Amino acid sequence: MPTESGDKKQKSSLVRLCDSWLEAVAEGFSCDKYEKRSRFIMLFLTALFLTLLIIPSPQFLTVNYREGDIATSDIRATQDYLIEDLLLTEKKRAEAEAAAPFVYSLAQNGNIDLVRRFEEALELMRDSGQGGSRRSAVAGVLGVEISPAEFGALSRIRQERAFLSDLGRQLAPIYRQRIVADRSHFAADLRHGIIVVDETTGQGVAGGDYSSCIDLAAARRAFGGADLTQGGSGHDLEILKGVAQRMIAPNLNFDRNGTDEKKSEARAAVRPVLFKMKRGEMIVRVGERVTSEQAMKLEKIYKAKNRAPILTGLGIFGLVLVLCYVPFRFGRKNIRKFHPSNKDILLLSLLTVGNFAVLKLVSAVSTAMGGLFPSIDTASYFYVFPFAASAIIVRIILNSEVALVYCAITAPLTGIMLNNSLQVVIYAFLGGIVGAHGVRQCKERGTIYSAGFKVSVVNMALALCFYIYSDSHFSLQTVYCIAFALLGGLINAVFASGTIPLIEALFQYTTDVKLLELANLNSPLLRELMVRAPGTYHHSVLVGNMVEAGAEAINANPLLARVAAYYHDVGKLKKPQYFIENIRDGENRHDKLSPSMSALILISHMKEGVELAKEHRIGQPIIEIIRQSHGTSLISYFYLKAKGLETPGAPPVEERDFRYPGPKPQTREAGLVLLADCVEAASRTLSDPTPARIQGMVQKIINNIFIDGQLDECELTLKNLHEIAKSFNQILAGIYHQRIDYPEPAYKEKNIVKKCPEDSDNEPPKADPGREDGAAKGGAEDLRRLGMS
């Protein structure tokens, strides 16, 4: 059987393997050469996975049921649908079509047209030609058949102008009236409603009294009483009057094309009659005969299932890309603290995809729950979903700026997934903002549950507002929604609290809660430092107090600065006796080493500290501060010693060989640790640490570090340096405050030797050879009056 120690070794090897893999992935993502490419790949894959989750899944309906078919299974609506009621829509369109008015066209110049045709016929009579063919041509022009007698009467007209004028005068009073083909049929159309348009222009004619219209027979009888007297003999004129009488036609005619057009317009103006089918609604049960209404619903689902999925997917994919890219780009360009690394983006992508995968699962579960609890609307179950959990996680692990942009991206996507619901967008966005705000100072796990309760309160208020806004009456359904909203806020806290430790372990993030655990002075690494290197331990604790005060003064992260200060010198555990603060027997091992070797030993403690921090899983932010805690500062003691030992002809002593490899501090917290480290070490060299001397020493050390360019890459301003110096002065003045020299009791003076209460050997401490003495540089660029009130 495997031993317990063997199991521990196996577990530790697995942990180291995971750490090395994650570190390799992080380094690959952070490489400048592949940074933009990696971000594009992550954006593309995130959009692809989100599209697959958001796109409507294929429905289970594989049979297009018809009316009268027997359902072979229970069928429910898997999403909200708006169904067109085809029968009711067709009925309303038929009613609108039947109610459309009839169109009649009015010939305004019917008499003139009739006279014109007689004129053309007379012109044709003058042309050469014989009998029958010419008579047929004349009949074609007149529009009526004519007999040989009528043709002869027309040919004998000698005074054409007089005949045509007389004919026009007799026709004018008749055509001033409205002549219809059938007066009874027109009267029925008139009662239904008519529109009169001009036959030539197609424009509407002003309304008039159409009830006095005459029919065609009455018009012809009226003309039969006319007396033509001009242009020919009385016999011929009487014959031609008969021809003209047959040529009289209605001037108000039914317009079939215009009427059909009006009916089409009326039909098209009727909007489809829709009714809503809710998600989870039972459409038909197994064994039931499908009714006409159920057939319409099933056909809608069947058509939705068979829509072009490629086009739908491309549309959603493009929308997801835009929604992810635009807010991210805006944040990068306009929000000062929005600078997520590629590792951060990978975390955000995984959180988003996981969030939507869970939302998809909840959607499926809520559909199933709809069958078990039909009295609860399936849409109510979405109030339970932990929309704010991801925002809480992002705020704790990263910062509020990233959490805000994250909410701006995920909230619209959530609304798209849930049937384009604006209410869901508002609910998800506000819940995420409240949750992120609730954990802005998360120092313990209980803060997460407090934030979850705040989310519950806002969720319940939103649920109530939604029901008031939708004009719904307060009912049991409203109570369900409010209760689910309360439960959803608490689920946010549980989900976030359980997920954060996992993310910390997998992605090597260090949250404030983790920092509080590391700040425990009884942690294994600090206890070992206290035992093996007590001087370094004491120095680190004092530096921690100093950087915490400085961070509070400049609004940096006091907790991160303090914990980083505790661990910044853990590398000295490898060779504690080579550092002056740990020497107790008076023997300085550097006396037997060359200056270059001593410098190498001092420099190596930084690399060894990083290795120890990784081994104990201290956290990446602290590891980075350990790397940067000395910047590229010069180990002046051994450099000057090496310069003093330099002999002619030997290779010159290079200053770079006596500088720490860096990098320089990149954050304000790292800059604080560097400053406090040097100031605290230099303070031990003061023989009489009065407040004035402490202030001068602090000013000189910070000035030298500034001139050396160690603070060029962090965001510390001159105002920050002034506030830091003031806080250092206060801390050191408190440590080295003056004490009253109490007199010894009279009866003990003969037996007790009086000693200095401040220093047991009455000698000033030796300078740390591993640090600058604070006086190597100076000049016109010195920062004056640092830390002075």
From TrEMBL:
Any one Gene Ontology molecular-function term assigned to this protein's record: hydrolase activity
HD/PDEase domain sequence ranges: 532-691
TM helices/strands, residue ranges: 40-61, 308-326, 346-373, 379-398, 405-428, 448-469, 481-503
Pfam (any one): HD
Chain residue ranges for the region called Disordered: 755-789
Protein keywords: Hydrolase, Membrane, Transmembrane, Transmembrane helix
Xref: InterPro entries: HD/PDEase_dom, HD_domain, HDIG_dom, Metal-dep_PHydrolase_7TM_extra, Metal-dep_PHydrolase_7TM_intra, PgpH_phosphodiesterase
SMART domains (UniProt xref): HDc
NCBIfam families: HDIG
Name this polypeptide is given: Membrane protein containing HD superfamily hydrolase domain, YQFF ortholog
Protein source organism: Citrifermentans bremense
